[in-house]
Design goal:
The complex is a heterodimer of chains A (128) and B (170). Chain A has 128 residues and is α/β, with parallel strands linked by helices. Chain A has three helices and six strands. Chain A has a six-stranded mixed sheet, covered by helices on one side. In chain A, helix 1 runs parallel beside helix 2. Chain B has 170 residues and is an alpha+beta fold. Classes of the chains: A alpha/beta (128), B alpha+beta (170). At the A-B interface, helix 2 and helix 3 of A face helix 1, helix 2, helix 4 and helix 5 of B.
Chain lengths: 128, 170
Amino acid sequence: MENFFLEGTNKTPQLDFNSNEGRFLIAGRSIPENSIEFYKPLFEWLDNYVGQAKSNTILDVKLEYFNTSSSKCLVEIFRKLEALQQKNDNVLINWYYEEDDEDMQESGEDFQEIIDVKIVLNQMEEEE
Amino acid sequence: MLEGEVIVSYKGAPSQPLFDGILSVADERLAALEQKSKIRKKVYHIMIEALQNVYHHTQGEGVQKSESPETVLFVLSKHTTGYEISTGNYIPTSLVATLQAHIERINRSSADEIKQLYREQLHGGEVSVKGGAGLGIIDIARRSGEKLVYAFEDTGEDNSFFSLKVKVSA
């Protein structure tokens, strides 16, 4: 199947989903007014991917900002990865946050609480 | 009504390009004003959420187009104790009771209860087409860590003016 790639903008994240390597990336800002509309093609792509599961899938999430409607979409994406895991795939989510960004760290903890896939919180060095 | 230094303010008709403009100006000015990136991010994040709340309200069903319900208000200001993000917009009067109950519940909750409330909504709440999911105001309160200050002003028509003030201590 084809990879899913979308360049980031100042309101939407870069989406880089490589189906062969099972390596996914969501990075940047996710603050569109209509998040569902933005993420829908990715949801469909993921359904397809789950259908022809690989043995290892890693998703890196490196978001600077995301709004609450995007957080619902992230739950949706993570749930699809849960489905993948139920098919005996190894699934890992890396959640990145900047050193002093406690809010982003807490967001990672929120997802850890809700999602039944291993989510590793990774602290990044501050850019400044 | 306003003390402190106004960083960005707007009063007028709402539009998405305009909100994007407000956000980018605020982002720029905050970068110059606030040394702590943690505070900067918090303020910016709350602004995004607050403006999108306003946007969804103005897109929502029911706001009567009579008077001047198109008017929205946004102010970001800096005070000795921190920052204040104020928004104002019309909502249908029929929604006032629900919204007020929602805010009151949040204001009665401890930080930990707000966190749980957020997680419950994230876990279970359905995403509406508007993308609201009832999470926005919970998210704002959680990040702010302060009680929400709000008011509803009955315009005598079918609309009420909803104003919300969010504080971030710095």
